[in-house]
Amino acid sequence: MGPIAGDRIVAMYGFDKGVVGTFGTHRAKHGVSSRFGLQIYGSKGVIQLRTGSLSDTYFLADPSWFPGKSKVNWQPITSAGLNKPEPLKDNSLVQGNIWIVQDLMKAIEEDRQPKGSMYDGRAALEMILAVYESHRRKGPVDLPLMNRKHPLTLL
């Protein structure tokens, strides 16, 4: 986990094969912020998405660290693929839960892990708790967390 500066938290995590992930957050200055999403920088470009069952997701075929200078346009990514119209219409939170349950049932039938496995959930929860622990300690923390108690119970 990285430095904390006022109301801002920045985290870095090293994955396999030299992949580095970063997480940044800050308290919105004027109420709730609509700036929320995920950016993935890869060897062929950038993917940007927001949360939801049918989230706004786009690809920019510009692999530089300063995307946009190439004048390449963002292309939508849908469940049908790159630059294809979205065939699914229901983007409610309820529909997302239905898809999760359907995948879980199919995973049981096929004796495989679901797309969002318990291991993925545990890793996501550990990253969230690391943000709280970093804030509590006012400094960086390592993953996996050494402290196995919920950081907010220690405030």
Short description:
25% of the residues lie in helices and 22% in strands. The protein has 155 residues and is of the alpha+beta class.
Textual characterization of the structure:
- With 155 residues, this protein is an alpha+beta fold.
- It is built from two helices and eight strands; from the N terminus they run ββββββββαα.
- It has a five-stranded antiparallel beta sheet, with no helix packed on it. Strands 1-2-3 form a three-stranded antiparallel beta sheet, covered by helices on one side.
- Strand 4 and strand 5 (46-49) form a beta hairpin.
- Residues 1-6 have low confidence and may be disordered.
Write the layout of secondary structure elements.
Blueprint lengths: L3 E2 L2 E7 L5 E7 L11 E4 L4 E4 L7 E4 L14 E4 L2 E2 L10 H18 L7 H20 L18
Antiparallel strand pairs: 1-2, 2-3, 4-5, 5-6, 6-7, 7-8
Strand order of the largest sheet: 4-5-6-7-8
Q: What is the radius of gyration computed over CA atoms, rounded to a whole number of angstroms? A: 18 Å
**Would you tell me the overall average pLDDT?**
82
Beta-strand percentage?
15-25%
The shape is: globular
Helices, by number, come to: 2
Oligomer: single chain
Helix percentage: 10-25%
Structural class: alpha+beta
Point out poorly predicted stretches. 1-6
String of helices and strands = EEEEEEEEHH
Total number of strands: 8
List the keywords.
single chain, 155 residues, alpha+beta, five-stranded antiparallel sheet, three-stranded antiparallel sheet, 2 helices, 22% strand, globular, disordered N terminus
